[in-house]
Amino acid sequence: MDSKVWLVTFSVIAVLLIGGTGFYSFSSYGKYSESLSSWDSKVGTIESLERRVPYPNEENTEALEGQVESYKAAVQGLFQSLNAFQRPLNTALANTEFVQLVKTRVQEFRTYAQSGGLEIDPELDFQLGFNIYASTLPQPELVPILDYELEAIDNILRKLIDCGAEKLITFERNSIPGEVGASAEQESGVVDKYPIRFRFEGSHDTFQKFVNTITNDKEFFYILRVLKVRNSSVTGPVKLTSEGGESSTPRFEDPLTKQLAAYEQLVEWGYDGSAGSLPAVEKAAATAGFIPAKQDASVLMGQELLNVFMVVDITRFLNPEEVAENVEDDTKSSPKRK
After folding, report:
1. DSSP for 211-226?
2. pLDDT tens string 124-144
3. pTM
């Protein structure tokens, strides 16, 4: 091979090797410098953390304790405002005394209902919701809550009488935690709810007064959770013709109450929609004590008899000590609060 060609080839190869080596060395040095800088930074961070105090200083501790005390005061203030709507639990009442108290309250309520004009449905085994304790004793630890419920139930039903209700049709009380068939614990750890369900009959005025009364009660905190109302009057007002006069449907009223006979009653008297049936209808209406209605207007609302179903939660707010005790019990894995 010509020496010049060999020399040129060797020079090119040498240049390439030297350039590649230099590039690799430069790249490796850059990565080394970056890694070294990162290492120094982490070492500096560790040394800084080692020099710090691993717990709050006195100033921070006092500030934190001040916030905790402020929060406790706010919680206590809220409870005191809510506590105005509830009385303390009677923890000294024995279960035998409670059973006798239920019997006494039931008898007193029946007397109060009779004097107030409230009829209790004869088919209703009415014991203020505590029928089970007519033959058995409650568990001693449940007596304070049951006694609280008894007071609240007696109070709300007496308010129903005072508002003018005519008939108590049904009444039921949900079992509280600890009673047979009840859930194991309350839904909330700070508020206990004891639901009751009842149905009654009364006027629109009675219904309105009762709702306003229980939602503003000063002795107990009631929450009206479910409400269903059925009107005894299912027919609408008398229709008018396009000329503004009355339709051909006859109208009869009770001369004492001024209540119009319903269309169904007209059918019972023999009305079939034809003019030929009117004489028989008039005769049957007179026998029933109704007279032809001549008024040009009638009362559409306020004269109905309402059938009302309610679910009301008797609500009791736990004081901070009770809440703390329940938390402690849960921490120790003890049985749930009853």
Report:
1. HHHHHT-SSSEEEEEE
2. 999 999 999 988 999 999 999
3. 0.61
